[in-house]
Structure to design on (510 residues):
């Protein structure tokens, strides 16, 4: 069996395992979110979202090391150097421990000041907010120290581990919901403590799995100064990109709180839940493919690397579009069905954030490809600089009196500009032909979208809101997007491959 064929089978197997994980996680997440919103109330739900976001905002310091750790582990596994792999893992753990200490210091000084002096939180909920804040600090530290272990699992492409451990994770979250409903203490405090305990247990399980299966995951506090500086330098140039990322997530969340209060944060929290649920359908496929992009670069096979990038971007977009179109057209109905009481602005927030996710599906392969090269300095300065403009422009827009959803429109426009800059810079880094990129990704997906949306929009305009319209729109979306994707979004070779697999499945069932 050829290496390409074996890699394709591994990708398919890993994608399947990640989708099993995703379906189970998503179903439980949507159920628990509804119960938690009803139990906490809109205001407390918003408080939890914005207060926890203060510490998440500091976590951008660690963002560069996440990509650095993943890149170096992928690279060394492709090279087959066990000693170097062990050194990379332990160096990553040492750097993450240092970052965790920095975040504790920042959290208990600058972050605490911001919580007490700047956030809009009702006076009577300040004690509960403090509990949420301290639990968030501990959870953030635990997650930071766990990054090398999670990256090691992904680098070894053992995606089944995520699927199995996720069953435990979501089971514990279901227990949290039950305990929260019957808890005699303050619901917000109880939710913060229980969430922290679940995170501690899940992180312990991941660590034990790595210790059992991967020799390099045993801790050795021997310092490799050269590698320490190299990995830290790689992460340092990713600083701007990660700073921009945290600013347009948690930074915008803080800004919305200051301008509009915690109720708008609750609306954003709901939108994030829906966005995450839909995006999980794509993340499994991308997570399975990302290590192969890096490993192909490490082995010098740029042609296969380009091919994987094209497929990752195009398939990810088309898959997300297939799932998100009915959600975009029937957002109000779905949120009302899910939550009963929908926070103001939640509908428009959800729709714009899903559109942002669609744009970003084509960016992920570019990000992974750039990290694979290790030449991140100029790339991160340019892309990060563009994305950093989201926050100041959003602030100006809100100061001029624009509605809350305007910040997400700003995000969408700047993310589109950033994606074109990514494509342009990869042209030289990995000899990426711009015309091939456009031909294999953007021309098929734009044409597919233009054709696929016509029928569902016509149906939506002709039928009154309710179950009948939801079913009719959903059916036409599946039909229209499915046919358009097959004949426009797929290449000829992909259509043949799809039909061959479908015929084999039919024969097996007969």
């Amino acid at each position: 069996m050829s290496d390409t064929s074996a890699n394709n089978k591994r990708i398919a197997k890993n994608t399947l395992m990640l989708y099993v994980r995703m379906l189970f996680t998503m179903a439980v997440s949507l159920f628990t979110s509804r119960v938690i919103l009803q139990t906490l109330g809109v205001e407390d739900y918003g408080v939890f979202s914005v207060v926890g976001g203060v510490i998440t905002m500091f976590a951008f310091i660690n963002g560069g090391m996440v990509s650095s750790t993943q890149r170096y582990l992928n690279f060394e596994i492709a090279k087959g150097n066990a000693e170097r792999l062990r050194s990379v893992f332990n160096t990553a753990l040492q750097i993450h421990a240092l970052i965790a200490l920095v975040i504790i210091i920042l959290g208990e000084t600058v972050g605490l000041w911001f919580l007490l002096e700047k956030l809009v939180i009702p006076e009577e909920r300040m004690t509960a907010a403090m509990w949420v804040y301290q639990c968030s600090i501990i959870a953030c530290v635990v997650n930071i120290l766990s990054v090398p272990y999670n990256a090691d699992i992904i680098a070894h492409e053992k995606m089944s581990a995520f699927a199995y451990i996720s069953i435990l994770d979501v089971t514990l979250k279901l227990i949290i919901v039950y305990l929260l409903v019957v808890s005699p203490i303050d619901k917000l405090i109880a939710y913060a403590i229980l969430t922290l305990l679940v995170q501690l247990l899940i992180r312990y399980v991941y660590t034990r799995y790595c210790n059992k299966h991967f020799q390099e995951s045993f801790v050795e506090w021997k310092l490799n100064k050269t590698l320490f500086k190299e990995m830290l330098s790689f992460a340092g140039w990713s600083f701007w990109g990660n700073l921009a990322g945290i600013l347009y997530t948690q930074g915008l969340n803080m800004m919305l709180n200051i301008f509009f209060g915690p109720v708008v944060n609750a609306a954003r929290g709901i939108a994030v839940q829906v966005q995450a649920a839909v995006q999980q359908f794509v993340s499994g496929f991308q997570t399975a493919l990302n290590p192969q992009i890096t490993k192909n670069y490490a082995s010098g096979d740029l042609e296969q690397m380009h091919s994987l990038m094209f497929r990752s971007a195009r398939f990810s977009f088309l898959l997300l579009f297939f799932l998100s179109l009915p959600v975009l057209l029937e957002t109000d109905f779905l949120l009302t069905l899910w939550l009963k009481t929908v926070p103001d602005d939640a509908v428009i927030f959800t729709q714009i954030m899903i559109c942002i996710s669609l744009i970003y599906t084509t960016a992920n392969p570019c990000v992974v490809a750039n990290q694979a090269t290790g030449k991140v300095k100029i790339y991160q300065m340019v892309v990060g600089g563009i994305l950093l403009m989201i926050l100041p422009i959003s602030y100006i827009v809100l100061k001029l009196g624009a509605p809350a959803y305007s910040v997400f429109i700003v995000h969408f426009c700047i993310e589109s500009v950033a994606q074109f800059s990514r494509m342009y810079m990869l042209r030289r880094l990995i000899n990426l032909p711009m015309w091939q990129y456009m031909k294999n990704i953007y021309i098929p997906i734009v044409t597919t979208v233009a054709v696929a949306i016509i029928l569902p929009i016509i149906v939506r305009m002709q039928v009154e809101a309710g179950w009948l319209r939801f079913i009719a729109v959903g059916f036409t979306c599946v039909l229209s997007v499915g046919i358009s994707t097959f004949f426009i979004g797929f290449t000829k070779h992909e259509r043949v491959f799809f039909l061959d697999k479908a015929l084999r499945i039919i024969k097996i069932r007969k």
Q: What stands out?
A: Residues 3-40 form the longest helix (38 residues). The radius of gyration is 23 Å. The mean pLDDT is 80. The chain is about 85% helix and 0% strand.
